[in-house]
Amino acid sequence: MLGAGVFVVFAPAASLSGSYLLVAIALAGLVAALNARSMRQLSKVLPIAGGAYAYGREYLSKSWGFLAGISFILGKIGSVAAIALAAASYIYPSAKVQVAIAAVLIMTFISLLGINRTALGALVLSVPTVLLLLLVGFVGLQQPDASVQTELSLTGIVSAAALIFFAFAGYARVATLGEEVKNPAVNVPRAITIGLVFVLGLYLLVGNALSRRLGPDLESSVAPVLDYTTATMPWLSRELVIVIAAAACLGSLLSLLAGISRTSEAMARDGELPKLLASRSKRFDSPWVAELVLATIAIALLSSGDIVWTIGISSFCVLSYYAIANLAAYSQLAKANPGSKLLAVIGLASCLLLAIFVPVQSLIVGASCLAASLALRAGLIRLRLAR
Length: 387
Fold this sequence. Notes:
- The protein is mostly helical.
- The chain has 15 helices and no strands.
């Protein structure tokens, strides 16, 4: 959640929402909170790896579980490509694709060493990011307001929230690692809540700082956090900001690879993906085949170079994933807690609303990929039955 999103997504979101960027951030945060509630509920009663994929299979059907799992995998592979390109844009923009490939390979190697090293690496990379963003946010409270009031556009705000959701989407990543978390029934819900509350507050601080100081220039900024620190904190080294931004992207990339590979592994164990993807390293207990395959696909996607378009695809697929999580929560709550069903329904509806407001090209590509995946699965099932 403190990776590439916070460093790149506020600019295109501001071009859609204008001076109502904070409203868009709050809306994305509200949708994330509704989703988090469903994920917390489900992780308490079903503390296993796979996230909404496992919840969909348990409380809906195997088909719904497959759709959740493939939505997560497709969305996050797109995120891996976008984040690697974002990191490369900071590190060495003249050789962006080559550096992005190197970033994916290095983070995959760390992830192959096991979840403890992955968590430690993500923690180390996140600390300077938190410090920098807190500094940006609090300095922004002291800055004069340079923003220009724009006309209210509900469509623009919802579209901006759909993009900003990309930055929130990591709050339930720990749910995909359920079997590797100590006392998951307690610690997974706790991690989801703490992470989401902290990041929402930080996003509002940073969004306020960027919109107040950069004003209309925020919409065209390629590196808004860097532009902000250059304008307001000349004493802070540009090179240091670039290094921190790149480190944040790499930390996000590392946690992404861990989450995607374990969802792929869970699906392979259930026969929804090739069994080979369930193979685990005996030494490091990591799903090494899945990690290598996913890294290969992500590297193949790096040639697109369009971060915003890729973010749209990621948001669409991940919102579809959380829509199924809310539907699973509704099904589970219908048996355990009928009074809480309404919030699950609102969460489902809000996910679908944001999903249809991503960029049109992203919507078409994302929906086509999900439809093709379902058609391929149906064909393979018919072939299997015929044999």
